[in-house]
Amino acid sequence: MVSFLIPFESALGETRVSATPETVKKFLDLGCKVFFEKGAGKAAGFLDDTYMDAGAELVERENDEVKKIVDIVLCVQPPNEKFLSHLKPGSFLVGLLNPYGNKLLAETLKSKNISAIALELLPRISRAQSSDALSSQANIAGYKSVLLAASALDRYFPMLMTAAGTIQPSKIVVLGAGVAGLQAIATAKRLGAVVYVSDIREAVKEQVESLGARFIELPKIDETPSESGGYAKQVSDDFIVAQRKELAKQLSEADVAICTAQVPGKKAPKLIDEKMLDDMRPGSVVIDLAVLSGGNCACSKPGETIVREGVKIIGASNLPCSIPNHASSLYSRNLLSLLQPMFKEGKFLIDNDDELIAGSLISKDGVILKSEIIENGGTRS
Asked: Which domains does the chain have, with CATH numbers?
């Protein structure tokens, strides 16, 4: 019988959990046994009793003997080295493992002969959508970023007609029309704001306009920015200079800027410099979702709000943790969707020929398979 362990997340500020009572039941239906560390779901609104009712066996966090017998560990963020050192050789770790340049993780996986899947590396193909944890969590971040901006802004978002006169709607500029950006657009529109969108990809214009936003036209330069693996490709310096000139104009008229442009494994592009900030009106707000990877906005810092000449710059480092119940529900379903097909006749089989597995498997029985990513922080092609 294949056994799972759902650990208490040890990362600072992490409130999500890697399995809910719903997904525990689904794993049990596959003939598995599930061990659940007490209190692991509390911060996300899932109490121990609900896991016990679903069929999980509750264990203490300090129970290292359980770690030595489980086959699969589901996590949100990578467990610490001490936790991993107790796992048995041949066990399997699945989660958002932050593989880029993570040499310590690689050394531990290698020394303990552990197999591991990093969800960040799942190929962005249609079959992977239900397992795409980056997208499910980015969707939440995009939604919450708008609520954060609305709370910090000194104005209403919608147009209001009152006895005292008419209030004009706020202008929001969203930088990047990926998953987080598109959700930010939709949420800002629902709150009544006027939304403009900046992205280097002409292909996203139709999506942006379908949500009721206005696409900031691209510079007329002899190149067509495109994407690879679901992310925007780099463009020439001339293109960037021309685009930023138009972006600076839009930001000078904006009440809110929401920055979502990032590529896993690379430093986030710096899209808003100090000169652009100088031209924004006092009281306006910048939400930087890319702050952990260097930030799209000058002066942003993870988890901090900086007021610069009246402009609030919010380093929104981990917004999914601020909505842990739904974030955990979606994340746990991502894991279930990925692992469910690996169970065949009661056995758990890792198919190296499967495109999803081949793309995201960073180690197999301790053999490091993505050495370029782990050693150099290189990204997928």
From this structure: 3-121+324-370 (3.40.50.720), 140-322 (3.40.50.720)
Could you give the residue numbers annotated as active site? Answer: 124, 129, 132, 135, 231
Cβ atoms of 269 and 175 closer than 8 Å: no
Minimal CA–CA distance to 145: which of 201, 193, 185, 196?
185
What would the pLDDT profile of 342-380 be if each residue is shown by its tens digit?
998 778 998 888 999 999 999 999 999 998 888 776 544
Contact indicator for 96, 118 with CB cutoff of 8 Å? yes
Give the whole-angstrom CA distance, residue 285 versus residue 273: 14
What are φ and ψ of residue 194, in 5° steps? -90, 125
Here the tokens at position 179 are 């998953």
Query: Which token pair is 125?
Result: 């193909």
- Lowest mean pLDDT, pick from 122-126, 150-154, 177-181, 186-190: 122-126
**Residues 235-283: pLDDT tens digits?**
667 877 888 899 999 999 999 999 999 887 889 999 999 999 999 999 9
Q: Which amino acid is at 380?
A: R
